[in-house]
């Protein structure tokens, strides 16, 4: 009998011959990630549990991103506690202002295909873009892993998503994952793995795959997985080993469900306020006036996203009353966008370009909105109160669509 | 069997509604708990009593990994959360901190805020409005963590 990708990773990790959905197994963590919001709680729980040392300081990564730079009184307390914890337990991988955790985990080479990775953030599913099993957990559980290096998991069933063909010009991978979340519902993949395959997926850049894996959790998924290929190898700066090459769903693997799409059928879409699965084609929303546009986040703050926005904005100006906020996902992306002239185009169009970080996406800084305001945003959640007050309307979209809306001052389709 | 009042909430209730991200920086759950369900029912922390129950629909606790979401409910004395289904991370976090989370498909549609219910965790039975509902039993592994009062207690026992 064949295996799904997640089953192969778990077999490799545990050494177990037979692994089937529903089994509870103990896996070894290849890497863990903690971010600034939760480090004080992790540190507390770690000491409460009575651990004296980290199971492997080299495998733990601490990233400050939600609170960088501090915007409110006492935010820096989290950095002080994080720095003290890292120093006490010999953690070397600490990023204090390099960008968003999920971008850095793959970009800085902490995650490789086939790895098992846990992070104190729900969007930890992102690393499935390189074929790693990665999932979000709470701070108590993270403290336990830091001490033991292990965690129990239930082997998930898998939904296979097959996409074949060539995407229309105005469609980005964001439109694919939004459509899928709409089709599955916000709980349609709860406890399940999502496996993405097909010629469209093979054609996609690792960055585009990242957008899809990032938002898999918005359908409730435990993880999202892409087969590592030559693009993955190049991105990770490795040569794929035999195990990594084997990470493809077997012909005779058992899937809970197989969903098939034709790439040509996708259209630009938005998730309407205030549910991630309330998906509508942009063409049906045209004309709705907006106050702000946000292009950034671990979902869509990468170089290709900024380039796509610049392609729409080049030589034009954003609407007078619209604030366009652009937040690169990492310092590396920020620099590359400068080198390639993308920042110049964005700035000339009237964008407010901020430092890399979580910024507006987590509603703490950099463009928080008030009652009655409306924003088109490229991040992953449009929950009530996410980017300001409870009476802010958030529409989630691709960077191309978001840029077109910024020019028009209302919802429009990108040309 | 512990008896308590029901506070009922809707489908796809996300963790931002349970505790907003602006409060996650407060030093502890005691300070955070007064903001529980603030966007939906600002008086909830005053109205809820120790031993009361939160009842939800499908996908309860979707969204972020914040453990403070089950944390503030436990800090307010909520006895258990009963829902048609739970989001993965919320479910795990709740078990790890010793807050019972119970899947019951029928009860949520039959009850409203203010109704009273009884729960027998070991038998997997909920009683409300003169009716008995059976719930999905937790796997033994999770039941053990819960019985010992959460992950910390269960780890201490192993060490």
Verbal overview:
The complex is a heterodimer of chains A (415) and B (159). By secondary structure, chain A is an alpha/beta fold. Chain A has two domains: 5-263, 2-Layer Sandwich (Aconitase, domain 3); 270-408, Aconitase, domain 3 (2-Layer Sandwich). Chain A is 31% helix and 19% strand. Chain A has 15 helices and 18 strands. Chain A has helices spanning 5-14, 39-48, 76-89, 101-107, 139-148, 173-184, 199-203, 206-215, 230-236, 242-245, 297-300, 303-313, 331-339, 342-348, 399-408; strands spanning 24-28, 31-35, 60-63, 93-95, 116-119, 133-136, 150-154, 158-164, 193-197, 223-226, 257-262, 269-271, 279-281, 292-296, 323-327, 351-353, 374-377, 393-396. A five-stranded parallel beta sheet of chain A has the order 4-3-2-5-6, sandwiched between helices. The relative contact order of chain A is 0.14. The model of chain A has no long low-confidence stretch (mean pLDDT 97). The radius of gyration of chain B is 15 Å and the shape is globular. Chain B has a seven-stranded mixed beta sheet with strand order 4-3-2-1-5-6-7. With 159 residues, chain B is α/β, with parallel strands linked by helices. In chain B, helix 4 (68-75) crosses helix 5 (88-97). Helices cover 31% and strands 18% of the residues of chain B. The interface between A and B is large, with 48 and 36 residues.
Q: What characteristics describe this protein?
A:
heterodimer, A: 415 residues, Aconitase, domain 3, 2 domains, 5-stranded parallel beta sheet, B: alpha/beta, 8 helices, 7 strands, 31% helix
Give a short synopsis of this structure.
Chain A has 415 residues and is α/β, with parallel strands linked by helices.
Segments of chain A where pLDDT lies below 50 for 5+ residues? none
Could you give a short account of the major beta sheet of chain B?
A: 7 strands, mixed
Assembly state: heterodimer
Question: Under the CATH scheme, which class of the largest domain in chain A?
Answer: Alpha Beta
- Helicity range of chain A: 25-40%
Decide which structural class fits the backbone of chain A. Answer: alpha/beta
* Main sheet characteristics of chain A: 5 strands, parallel
Helix count from the secondary structure assignment of chain A = 15
Structural class of chain B: alpha/beta
Strand order of the largest sheet of chain B: 4-3-2-1-5-6-7
pLDDT < 50 runs, ≥5 residues of chain B: none
Mean pLDDT of chain B: 93
How many E strands of chain A? 18
């Amino acid at each position: 009998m064949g295996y799904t990708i997640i089953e192969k990773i778990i077999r490799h990790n545990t050494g177990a011959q037979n692994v089937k959905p529903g089994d509870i197994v103990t896996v070894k963590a290849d890497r863990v990630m903690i971010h600034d919001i939760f480090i004080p709680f992790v540190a507390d729980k770690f000491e409460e549990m009575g651990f004296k040392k980290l199971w492997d300081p080299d495998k733990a990564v601490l990233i400050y991103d939600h609170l960088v730079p501090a915007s409110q009184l006492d935010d820096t307390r989290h950095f002080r506690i994080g720095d003290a914890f890292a120093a006490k337990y010999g953690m070397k991988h600490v990023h204090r202002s390099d960008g968003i955790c999920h971008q850095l985990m793959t970009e800085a080479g902490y995650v490789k295909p086939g790895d098992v990775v846990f992070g104190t953030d729900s969007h930890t599913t992102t690393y499935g873009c390189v074929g790693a099993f990665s999932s979000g957990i709470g701070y108590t559980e993270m403290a336990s892993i830091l001490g033991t290096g292990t965690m129990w998991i239930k082997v998930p069933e898998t939904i296979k998503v097959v996409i074949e063909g060539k995407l229309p010009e105005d469609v980005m991978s964001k439109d694919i994952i939004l459509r899928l979340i709409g089709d599955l519902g916000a709980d349609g993949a709860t406890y399940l793995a999502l496996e993405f395959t097909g010629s469209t997926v093979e054609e996609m850049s690792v960055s585009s795959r990242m957008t899809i894996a990032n938002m898999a959790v918005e359908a409730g998924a435990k993880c999202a997985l892409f087969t590592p290929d030559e693009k993955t190898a190049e991105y990770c700066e490795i040569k794929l080993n035999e195990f990594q090459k084997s990470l493809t769903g077997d012909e005779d693997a058992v899937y809970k469900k197989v969903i098939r799409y034709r790439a040509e059928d996708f259209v630009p879409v938005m998730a309407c306020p205030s549910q991630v699965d309330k998906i509508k084609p942009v063409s049906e929303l045209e004309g709705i006036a907006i106050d702000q546009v946000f292009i950034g986040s671990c979902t869509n703050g990468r170089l290709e996203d900024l380039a796509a926005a610049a392609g729409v904005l080049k030589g034009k100006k954003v609407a007078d009353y619209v604030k366009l906020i652009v937040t690169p996902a990492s310092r590396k992306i920020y620099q590359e966008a400068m080198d390639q002239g993308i920042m110049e185009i964005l700035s000339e169009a009237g964008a407010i370009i901020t430092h890399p970080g979580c910024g507006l996406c987590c509603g703490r800084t950099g463009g928080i909105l008030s009652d009655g305001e409306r924003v088109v945003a490229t991040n992953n959640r449009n929950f009530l109160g996410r980017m300001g007050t409870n009476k802010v309307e958030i529409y989630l979209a691709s960077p191309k669509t978001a840029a077109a809306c910024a020019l028009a001052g209302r919802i429009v389709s990108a040309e | 069997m512990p008896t308590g009042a029901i506070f009922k909430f809707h489908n796809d209730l996300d963790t931002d509604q349970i505790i907003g991200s602006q409060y996650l920086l407060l030093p502890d759950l005691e300070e955070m708990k007064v903001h529980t369900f603030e966007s939906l029912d600002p008086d909830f922390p005053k109205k809820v009593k120790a031993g009361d129950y939160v009842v939800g629909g499908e996908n309860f606790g979707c969204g972020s990994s914040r453990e403070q979401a089950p944390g503030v409910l436990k800090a307010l004395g909520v006895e258990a959360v009963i829902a048609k289904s739970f989001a993965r991370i919320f479910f795990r976090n709740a078990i790890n901190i010793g807050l019972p989370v119970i899947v019951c498909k029928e009860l949520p549609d039959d009850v409203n805020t203010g109704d009273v219910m009884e729960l027998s965790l070991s038998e997997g039975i909920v009683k409300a409005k003169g009716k008995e509902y059976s719930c999905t039993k937790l796997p033994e592994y999770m039941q053990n963590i819960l019985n010992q009062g959460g992950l910390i207690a269960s780890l201490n026992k192993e060490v």
